[in-house]
Each structure stands twice: as C-alpha cells, then as structure tokens.
Amino acid sequence: MTIKSVVESIAQLIGAIVSAIRAFVSSDEFKNFFRKTGTWIASTLLWIADAIVRLAFAIISFVKSDSFRDGVRRVRDLGILGCQQGLRGIKWVVQWLHQIATSEAVKTGIATTADLFELCLPKQSQRITAVVIIFIVSIILILVWPESQQTEMVPAPKETVTGLKKTVPGITRIVSGMPNFGEFPAGRERKAAFFGYFLPIVENQNRAILAAREKLNDWHRNRGKIGSRDAAEISGIAARYRIDDFNIESDKSWNQLLNRVDVVPPSLALAQSANESAWGTSRFAREGLNFFGQWCFSKGCGLVPKKRDVNKTHEVAAFDSPQESVKMYIRNLNSNSAYKSLRDIRAELRKANKPVTGHELAAGLKRYSERGMEYVSELRQMIATNKLAIYDTF
C-alpha cells in the first residue's frame, strides 16, 4: 500500500464522518434534542434567578424585622456586658493582689525573713535563697489568707451592683419567696436582696410582653390570614391596653397597639420600685405588696394613706403578690395616657434601632410624681449609682 492510497483512505474516512455529522445535525432528531436542551437550560436559569430573588426578599424582610433587630441588640448588649464583667474581674484580681502585697502580714513576713538571712546565711548565698523563700512564703500566704480579710474583695457570683461609695454584693437572683427586706441592714445588703428578688420578676414580665409583641407583629404582617379566634385574642390584648376601638384593618390601630405592647427597662422598674417602696420596707409594700405606689379609686380596693387629704378618696392599691404589682406597674406605664410621652420615647428608640434604656424612658415619668423633673433626676441618679443599666438587655 502506497502513501497515496493511505492518504486517500483517510480523506474518504474524514469525508464520511463529516457527512454523517452534517446529516445528524440536519435531522429532526438533533433539532428536537437541541430545542429540549435549550428549553431545560433556560428553565433552570429562570428557576435559579427566581430563587435568588425570593431569597433576597426573604433576607431583606428578615433584616427589617423586629426579631432580627432584637437579636442584634441582644448580641451587642451581651457583648458589652461581657466586656464589663471581664474588666470588673481584672480589677478585682488587681485589687486582691494589691491588698495581699500591702498587708501587714506580708510586710512582717518579708522583714522577718530578711533578718533571719542576715543571721543564718553566708553573704554570697543570701540573694538567691531570699528570692526562693520569699516566693514560697508569698504562695503560702495567698493560699491560707484568712477568709475574714477577703470579704470586701470576693467577686460577686453574678452581676455587681455599685453603691455610693462601696461595692455592694452582686445581684444573685432570688427565685423563692420574698425576703423580709427590713431584716437586712440598710445599704449594701438590703440593696442586694431587693434587686436580687425583683430583677427576675421584671425580666419574666418583659419576656411575656416580648412574646405577645412578636405574635402581634406576625398578625400585623399577615392580616389576611387572621381568623375569628385570632381576632378575638387581638381584641382582648387591645382591651387590656385600653384601646377600645381597635380595627384590624387600620394601620393606625396596629401602630397604637404595638406602641403599647413593649417592655419597660429593668433599670427603670428596679429604681422606681426601690424609690416608691423605700427598698421594700414601706407600709404599702409590707401590707399591700405594692412596690410602685399605684393608686386605686374604689372604696376598699387598697390601703388608705394616713396623710390623705379630707376631700380625697383614692387608696393605695393592694395586690396578691409582688409579681402582680410588677405586672400592673408595667401595664400602667404602657396604657395610661399620663405616660404617653414615655411610650413615644420608646417608639422613637425602636425606630432608630437604639437601645431602650431606663435613663431615656425616665424622661416620660414627669407625671408619675408631683415632683416632676426632680423625680426624673432622682430615678436617673439611682440607675447610675447602682449601675442598673447593664440589665437593660431587652
């Protein structure tokens, strides 16, 4: 076989392959296959694009939701609280070491050890031996340091509340029965007991309010899916918050309701309860479990103030439990027309995605007391003095 014949055979083979490909491409079978493939690719691309658009809208909706904002706010507040607790722990360690280092026991031990070295050891070995023994003595002193000498410096097991001049015991949440606050010495111990008992009560009430607020937001976003049972529940919530003409179809009604169903910062509740009840020792707190000075206006509804004017008929409300007192206090701030400015301040903070703090909301309590702004300043001073703002995490 010559080279020429091989080349001709290869050319014929290539020609046959090209003809076969051309015939296949021209066939209806290939055209149908190409059309189906193109349709499938286009459908797939459209489906992916639609999924991306839906996901983007879902992310935007979630980012704008109160749940996401509350989550971001809580993470931020927990981060701040963690930094504060870390710095407080470092400060405690430094103070503890400083107290030990400057104590008379350590000074006496060092002086005694130095005198013994002068008497017993040769000069050339004094330096190294002194360093080793002083180190050992220091470790022993730290380990056996008397408990009574450490009382002021032992860190609180949880949060720390600061008094006017000294650090008071940390807030250890009390979840059992209410203590007799009068049995605690006035000052540090009574503050710790009072805050420790009322903080979890306020927190539980706020959690319940946030749960109701979240349900209301869901209903508001999906008004078309509200059934008769849901509508009755919404009307009941509106009635509890003194909105008698609530209209499910009205944005104004929804805004008014959501403006009222919201938390009261723990710092504000703790400061007011301490202020109004004399740290739980007032007559109204002891006999009527009223820690916020709420009034009532029907005969026999509470306790008659001993210094009530002759022409007055109000009484100081009596409650079945401290929990009910806290619940009605928060309900009062959230529904009474006298505290509309407080609710407006809170709504503006929510709108600006800022923390809802007791310091800010205190400005809306000028009508809570006849002292007006003097009362507001006193509450803010109590919040600052006792470092209560760290509990405003809602």
Question: Could you walk me through the main structural features you see in this protein, from its secondary elements to its overall organization?
Answer:
This protein has 394 residues and is mainly alpha-helical. It folds into 3 domains: 3-64, no CATH class; 82-155, no CATH class; 195-391, Orthogonal Bundle (Lysozyme). It has 14 helices and 5 strands. It has helices spanning 3-26, 28-64, 66-101, 104-120, 126-143, 188-221, 228-240, 251-260, 266-277, 283-288, 322-335, 340-351, 358-361, 373-385, and strands spanning 159-162, 167-171, 295-296, 302-303, 315-317. The strands form 2 sheets. The chain has a 3-stranded antiparallel sheet with strand order 3-5-4. β1 and β2 form a beta hairpin. It is flat, with a radius of gyration of 37 Å.
Descriptive tags:
single chain; 394 residues; mainly alpha; Lysozyme; 3 domains; three-stranded antiparallel beta sheet; two-stranded antiparallel sheet; 5 strands; 4% strand; flat
